[in-house]
Input
Amino acid sequence: MRLLIVDQDPAFRKDLVSLVERRGHAVTNVASGAEARAALEQEEFDVLFTGLRLDSHNGMALLADTRHRWPRMSVVMLTDSATVEEAVKALHQGAFDYLKKPVQPAQVHRVLELVSQELALRTKGAPLRDPVEYARALAAEGG
Output
């Protein structure tokens, strides 16, 4: 998959890039909301990992803009000061998931696995799956 990582913390970005590249994903990383918007205009991405707080741009505003302009892209929100209210708001605005930093590798891999499954369901020509059976399979896996 093609990922865009947006976060002000260069060490965090470096670690996350390294983690997902080891799994074969193509990654672009930037430090600001403005850089993210420029990257989104230039390339197509499957997943956007974005910090909740970004320079002069708010991560929630980036989420809203992304969901409006690139609705097929999955957005994963990242924050070091998560509140239940922020998480619920992000999910209501269309975030695929919401991870608290420092993220655990297993969490990131699981989110990417779920995004991959969702992409497969949306791919033209993909075998049809019974939604109830698919939901049961996800629940059995802890998803």
